[in-house]
Amino acid sequence: MTITYSWRGTVSNDELNGLHAEAFGTRVHADGERNWVEVLDRHSLGWVAAREGDALVGFVNVLWDGHVHAWIQDTMVASGARHRGIGTGVVRVAVAEARSAGCAWLHVDFAEDLRPFYVESCGFSPTNAGLIAL
């Protein structure tokens, strides 16, 4: 089946909660506990939804500072759809749409085991960064 990618495509809280739990090995949040749609509308430049038929199989959120910096968060691919290029596909659309919106920089933070994906597959350049655990 064909994968379709949509910028700011319609997504539901239930399907994003389920995909997030699957992708990151967390629990599924109770109804109303985490309102993805509200968070996306309030804080995001946009997001990319990847669908196979009606099923949400990939997602990435693009947050921004309202000017020239954007960053990606929550890159997710359903376990049964992995290793088919869907992760690089959602990032590729995110890059194009951030550029189209006038952003000059797209940032991403990642764990070391994801370096091959972000640097080699998606084309990000490694940089120094800092982090404070809160």
List the SSEs and their pairings.
Blueprint: E1 3-7, H1 13-24, H2 36-43, E2 44-52, E3 55-64, E4 69-77, H3 86-100, E5 105-107, H4 115-121
Parallel strand pairs: 4-5
Antiparallel strand pairs: 1-2, 2-3, 3-4
State the share of residues found in helices, binned by percent. Answer: 25-40%
Briefly note the structural class of the backbone: alpha+beta
**Uncertain runs with pLDDT below 50, 5 residues or more?**
none
- General form: globular
Q: What order do the strands of the largest sheet run in, or round the barrel if closed? A: 1-2-3-4-5
Task: Summarize the helix and strand pattern as letters.
Answer: EHHEEEHEH
Strand content: 25-35%
Helix count from the secondary structure assignment: 4
Averaged pLDDT? 93
Largest sheet composition: 5 strands, mixed
Rounded to the nearest angstrom, the radius of gyration is 15 Å
How far from one another are the termini? 43 Å
